[in-house]
Specification:
- With 143 residues, this protein is α/β, with parallel strands linked by helices.
- The protein has a single domain (17-138), classed as Rossmann fold (3-Layer(aba) Sandwich).
- It is built from five helices and five strands, in the order βαβαβαβαβα.
- A five-stranded parallel sheet has the order 2-1-3-4-5, with helices on both faces.
C-alpha cells in the first residue's frame, strides 16, 4: 500500500486578498500557488508599475494585504512603489515586507513604508500565514 499525504479541505471563504509584488517569476508563482492552496486569493505582479496600476484601479477592488519585495529589478523598488501609491492618493492596503535584505534594511524600509510587518526570506508556511493574517488584522485594529 502506498502512503499518501492528505490535503486539508479548502476553506469555506478566502482568508485574505493579497497582492504579491515579487520580481522573481518562479518565487512569485510558487508563493501564490501555495497561498491559493492555503485559502488566500493571491495576485502576483512582477513589477512596481504593474502593482501601481492594479492598486490604483478602482474596478479591481480592494486588497487586504500588499506583500512587498524590496528589491525589484525592473523599475523602482518597493519603497518607491509605496511612496508613489501614497502620493497618488490610492488606498494602500496593509503592507507586509517580504524580502531577503539584511535586518537593518528591513527595519528602515518598514519605517519608510509604514509597513505593519516584516518577514525575511525564506520563511516557513506557518510564519508566512501568521504574518499575512496579522497584516490583514492591522487594518481593523484601532489606531
Amino acid at each position: 500500500m502506498q502512503a499518501t499525504a492528505e490535503r486539508p479541505p479548502p476553506p469555506a471563504a478566502t482568508r485574505a486578498r493579497i497582492v504579491l509584488v515579487e520580481d522573481d517569476r518562479n518565487s512569485g508563482e510558487a508563493i501564490c500557488e501555495l497561498l491559493g492552496f492555503l485559502g488566500y486569493d493571491c495576485r502576483w505582479l512582477g513589477t512596481a508599475d504593474a502593482a501601481f496600476a492594479l492598486l490604483t484601479n478602482a474596478e479591481e477592488g480592494e486588497r487586504d494585504v500588499l506583500m512587498l519585495d524590496l528589491a525589484l529589478r525592473h523599475g523602482e523598488d518597493g519603497v518607491g512603489l509605496v511612496r508613489r501609491l501614497r502620493e497618488s492618493g490610492a488606498r494602500v492596503p496593509p503592507i507586509l515586507i517580504f524580502s531577503a535584505r539584511p535586518a537593518a534594511t528591513l527595519q528602515r524600509a518598514m519605517r519608510e513604508t509604514g509597513a505593519c510587518g516584516v518577514l525575511g526570506k525564506p520563511a516557513g508556511v506557518d510564519a508566512l500565514c501568521r504574518a499575512i493574517d496579522a497584516a490583514k488584522a492591522s487594518r481593523s485594529a484601532p489606531h
